[in-house]
Design goal:
heterodimer, A: 210 residues, alpha/beta, 6-stranded mixed β-sheet, 5-stranded mixed β-sheet, B: 371 residues, alpha+beta, 2 domains, 9-stranded mixed β-sheet, 4-stranded mixed β-sheet, 14 helices
Chain lengths: 210, 371
């Protein structure tokens, strides 16, 4: 039995449909019920939905054997897990962005609003830039518009939200996509099950020409 | 003695089992103080993998001391000249933050170190004791083994800076074949070497199954000598019947500044983290200016606390209620008699509903009656 943590939301639903197509379906998940955990003994899977940022924690601590998490969250919290496959979906970039046309001075402390304080700190430390982190939990784009921060560090998918609000990306930090992660202990004891899932994943994605 | 065993927590029982095991192989206990000079950890920061250490100044000398976050450093810093071999084990509390948490915890750790004239036999013996230590915890265990000489031998052919090699080692450690491919492409590592690194990252399985694949990977690389050593170790361990439970796993990683040669990690089913970790660390001794070898491992007993814990249904066998007017000498005698019969007894005035008991009794008129 593989315990699988899926991130709540559109990404998780897309990922589940891939699992379903690979023979890891679980009819309980489509039913209209109040269950929290969905089991299919025949296919040997047990799913549950978790807040995206919590998926790495469930996997690291072994409550789930495998899980699906955005690379952004893995970079931010650096969990002690195996990152075994790039699902190549949920693609976006982590960017430094700010008000269009404005480039903050280099001679003042840069105020950075972000959901990703660790990533931002690492990135600017590498550039030797003196910064002040302002940790926000959502609607990051408002911060530079209201003068709360000089720039933001956030994920950018198409850039439409930025454009509509007179913002633009200044620098790319890293490309992001959804990754399959696995617990370091249980993937040894369930090596065959995890290995089979991984090889079906590879076949599925390489069939599409990767 | 028998009757005390039931009182011991799992981690306490394992400490006893491990101590007996270590003594069987001729290791002597090394009892140490709880403090160490802070400088030791400052100089070997990355060895202890935690920068949160409890420090205080020694009132008599003004020196900065630390509550030990690690034992190995304290043992090897005073290791004798290379001609003398030391076999020691320890069970001590260490104080450090662990597993992504910022809080410092007191962790019971036990382990064993062989410092001195280390040869392949010594390495095999330490691995044997490590495997037997896992056996003492659970039947369902896996001992993963890697050889840093194989990993560095392959990485050497990629001709990268130390920092970039370090990054590749991290990627092997997280079995990220996709990230290795991407990184190697960016750094213009030749595809055949990139493929070898990917192979190392994903290989996992029994020695019989995986060794031929490793042999193909290390062929005509600087890793060949290390491969030969790994084969010798396997043959020796097979002779004592341990071949079955060993797994080749190059995702086990330890810092090159301290470790070289064979490294290993032990896992037990249903514990999500490795509970045993060790390897050969000649490089650490070199940092202390010693030319001898060293090999050892540590077992993290804090992880065993919850393992196999049977839910206890009752707090106490007998709850004995008495009135404030009760004759105290007779009450004391009654409690004494009940405990002497092997039952646990809690005497108090009222049943406040917080105690789970199997029998409720009342002390009334100088004797115990069923309530």
């Amino acid at each position: 039995m593989l315990n699988i943590a899926l991130p709540k939301g559109r990404l998780g639903e897309n990922v589940y449909s891939i699992f379903n197509a690979l023979g890891y379906g679980c009819s309980e998940i489509d039913e209209d019920n109040r269950k929290l955990i969905f089991t299919n003994n025949e296919n040997g899977v047990r799913y549950f939905w978790a807040k995206p940022a919590d998926v790495p924690i469930y996997v690291e601590r072994g409550a789930a054997d495998i899980g699906v998490s955005g690379k952004d969250l893995l970079l931010e919290c650096n969990p002690d897990v195996y990152e075994i496959f790039d699902l190549s979906i949920g693609k976006c970039r982590l960017c430094v962005a700010g008000v269009k046309g404005a480039r903050p001075d280099g001679d003042t402390t840069l105020r950075v609003a972000t959901k990703y304080p660790n990533i931002a700190r690492r990135y600017f430390r590498k550039k030797n830039r003196d910064i002040e982190i302002i940790k926000l939990n959502g609607s990051i784009e408002i911060a530079p518009l209201l003068g709360l921060s000089d720039v933001i560090v956030d994920i950018v998918e198409t850039g439409a939200t930025l454009r509509e609000n007179n913002l633009e990306p200044y620098e790319d930090i890293v490309d992001i996509s959804a990754r399959l992660i696995a617990n370091k202990s249980s993937s040894k004891f369930k090596h065959d099950e995890v290995g089979q899932l991984l090889s079906r994943m590879r076949d599925h994605f390489c069939g599409k020409g990767c | 003695m028998e009757s005390f065993c039931g009182l011991l927590r799992n981690d306490e029982k394992y400490v006893l089992a491990l101590r007996r095991l270590f003594e069987q192989y001729g290791y002597k206990r090394y009892k140490m103080s709880k403090f160490e000079e802070y400088d030791l950890y400052l100089e070997n920061k990355s060895f202890i993998q935690s920068d949160r250490i409890i420090t205080f100044s020694d009132p008599s000398t003004g020196k900065l001391l630390a509550l030990k976050p690690d034992i190995t450093l304290s043992i090897v810093k005073d290791a004798k000249a290379s001609s003398v071999s030391e076999k020691v084990y320890y069970c001590e509390n260490v104080y450090r933050a662990c597993r992504g948490s910022d809080e410092i915890k007191e962790i019971m750790q036990t382990g064993l170190e062989y410092v001195g004239d280390v040869d392949i036999f010594a390495v095999c013996e330490v691995i044997t004791i490590a495997v037997r230590s896992l056996e003492a915890v659970s039947r369902s265990y896996i001992m993963g083994i890697s050889h840093l000489g194989i990993v560095t031998g392959i990485l050497e052919s990629a001709r990268l800076s130390d920092l970039k090699k370090q990054r590749l080692m991290e990627l092997i450690g997280s079995r990220s074949a996709h990230e290795i491919r991407e990184f190697c492409a960016e750094e213009k590592v030749p595809p055949e070497i990139s493929e070898k690194i990917e192979t190392l990252a994903t290989l996992f399985g029994s020695f019989d199954e995986i060794l031929p694949k490793v042999e193909k990977t290390v062929y005509k690389t600087p890793a060949a000598a290390a491969f030969k050593e790994l084969c010798d170790i396997y043959e020796t361990l097979k002779a004592v019947g341990l071949g079955e439970k060993l797994r080749i796993d190059f995702s086990i990683m330890n810092s090159l500044s301290y470790y070289n040669g064979v490294i290993f990690q032990g896992f037990v089913d249903e514990i999500p983290f490795s509970i045993l970790s060790g390897g050969r660390y000649d490089n650490l001794l070199r940092r202390f200016g010693r030319d001898s070898g060293a090999v050892g491992f540590a077992v993290y007993l804090d992880l065993l606390e919850r393992f196999h814990k049977s839910a206890e249904m009752y707090d106490v066998d007998i709850l004995l209620l008495y009135d404030s007017g009760a004759c105290l000498p007779l009450l004391a005698k009654s409690v004494d008699e009940l405990t002497a019969s092997g039952k646990s007894v809690r005497a108090q005035k009222h049943d406040d509903g917080n105690i789970r008991y199997t029998e409720l009794k009342r002390f009334d008129g100088g004797s115990v009656i069923n309530a």
